[in-house]
Amino acid sequence: MGSSGFSSPRSGSFPEGLRVLVVDDDLTCLKILEKMLKKCNYKVTTCNLTREALDLLQERKDGFDIVICDVNMPDMDGFKLLEHVGIKMDLPVIMMSVDGETSRVMKGIQHGACDYLLKPIRIKELQNIWQHVVRKRMHEARDIESQDENQMTRNGKEPSDDRCSFSGDIVSGKKRKTVENKHRHGEHGDPSSEKKARLLWNVELHQKFMKAVHQIGLYKVGPKKILELMGVPSLTRENVASHLQKYRLYLSRLQKENELKAASGGLKLSDIYSKEPAGNVCLQSSMSQNSLTVQRSVHGHDIMNHNHDAKICNANVKGILSVAAEAKTALSTDMTGPALSSNPRISSSHSFGPLHSEVRSAPKIDTQYSWSGGVPSFQFKQEIRPHFQSEQLFDHLPLPMPQLQADCVSHNSTCSSKETDKPIEPNINLYYAQNRSHVKVENTAALFSVQPEPFPCSVWSTTNQGLEQNLYDNVECPEKNLIAGMGSSLRLWDEECISYQGDFSPLDAGGLVHIESVDCSNQGGLIADAPNFHNSVNFECDYHSDQMGYPVIDQGLFIT
Amino acid sequence: MEVDQLQRSFLEYSRLLFHEGFLDGQFSQLQLLQDESNPDFVFEVVSLFFEDSERLLNDLTIALDQQNVDFKKIDAHVHQLKGSSSSIGAQRVKNVCIAFRNFCDEQNVEGCLRCLQQVKQEYLLVKTKLEAQLRLEQQIVAAGGAIPMLNEFC
């Protein structure tokens, strides 16, 4: 077989001649595998050390089509090899082990293995390994095509015509397709080392996206339709598809969060949580108190709530609640979040204080928020738990401040989720929502009975404080709050290295703004902050919000 | 001896080994792999297995003899032994390895020592039997016959 791979004619038919590299420190196994693969008419190379394998792969760049490697290797962890090979060389890698524990298998998949075989391996399992090669090829070809088609400069890759060859040259699509979770965020871009221009889902794009989604209806929506409606030439269907997926994930995340919250607090999240259309929706239903119109519509917002709460506390909740409530609505996963407006008084008398501490404890929040407001779904990699003492919070306020939560969450992340490396973009959005709530909050002082602590600055870095300050300052001016909040929150996130892994595009915050169509005069401030946020956060996703300038956007867009 | 007789003895013996759990379907896989291009495949693989196992058992004995037992190391060895024994189809050896690993997790030296004893025993047993089977095979081949295969265990 020549190095040109399968594209060159061979005596046999595909998959004969598939060039396999087998790596295992167990000589008995190695020998057996070699024999089996030869029986499958594959071309086998064996080695029993990972280093050796890597060297071989380096030397013969195009020399192999697929690699099979044992997980437990003495000189180097099989997973590392997996990363090297899978990512750098873009070859399909099959892991194998005697150990079939789900967690191990999961790890393998997450590191990019295209399959995980359990020893002892039977010959029929090896007969079909060629499918991985073909699949990869197909993905890459598809990627190349789509890349060719769209004007966006994704990466400097040029359409190549030897996609069909099995040579390991195909690098592009790999990142996108492989590895499930790991690369999910950077779907548009290349999460791995490859440098690709990423698609930045900025506010406008997101707004367009949300608009399109609203138009079509969240449940009937499809990337193609959205793409058409959006009318952005440089956007590809894939961009939209992944964005949509994130958004959906966010929504479902919110739902889960809400359910969680419902369980913990007295809130009837289910009531609130909703994909209900605009209107006060949820908020009202679950609130025992009228004042608490805040809907916990945003389930996901619960998380936000936590954060939010924290923030809110400081910010003199009063006005906040309502705003929050509204924000919540905006944030409601359903895009159709009830307009916050309707619930002015979101009596989110959450005790932000406590919340705050809870939030802090949340180490990794893994949430995906999708705002109702066109904020792209972002994924917080945080364990969003109703940290806040739901009891407390809910005593006063059935609805936690959604948006605030968001903030909290983000902050939380700072405290804890350093692991995540995604920018906390979503937070921003949430934050916005929060702000809104601030804005609207009427005097629900009563609701805010709990605000024991000042804004938990301790939890967050000073930025938080700054943020809080913002909140406070802006209490009077709803708009300002919103903006300020956003700005601060952005800052907060920024500084705290919120590792949210999400494709949250801060830009979407604009959506939040929609919530109340608040005209935040502070936009400037917000915007100013936005960049910070983004910068410090590791954005792995495509959403790079360079500008957080979210003008007040008509809420219509977000709250449907 | 007649080829037929040899072959029948061989089959009986193989069947016994399978029934008693010394060998499992994986061994049959190995037998299937043997062909003209590789007439001694099973023999070679089994020999490798013997070498590997003896080395591992030695290492294990030494490791468990230490003042401070390094369970991680022991686990690694057992893991390897488990891997190779399962590849060969040495079922009973593999099973002891599983128990062995559990004791390692628990950091139970006593348990580990017992398992080591057991695994050594099982290893010796399967070694003896495989050697006996291989001898029968050789006799068949020497007498010009083909080695029969036990289909039911594939």
Q: Explain this structure to me?
A:
Chain A: Residues 193-252 form the HTH myb-type domain. Chain A: Residues 335-351 have a biased composition (Polar residues). Chain A: The modification 4-aspartylphosphate is found at residue 70. Chain A: Residues 173-186 have a biased composition (Basic residues). Chain A: Pfam families: Myb_DNA-binding, Response_reg. The complex is a heterodimer of chains A (560) and B (154). With 560 residues, chain A is mainly alpha-helical. Chain A contains 23 helices and seven strands. In chain A, the strands form two sheets. In chain A, strands 2-1-3-4-5 form a five-stranded parallel beta sheet, with helices on both faces. Residues 1-10, 154-196 and 266-560 of chain A have low confidence and may be disordered. Chain B is mainly α and 154 residues long. Chain B is built from six helices and no strands. Chain B has helices at residues 3-19, 25-33, 41-64, 71-88, 91-106, 109-142. The model of chain B has no long low-confidence stretch (mean pLDDT 90). Classes of the chains: A mainly alpha (560), B mainly alpha (154). The interface between A and B is medium-sized, with 20 and 23 residues.
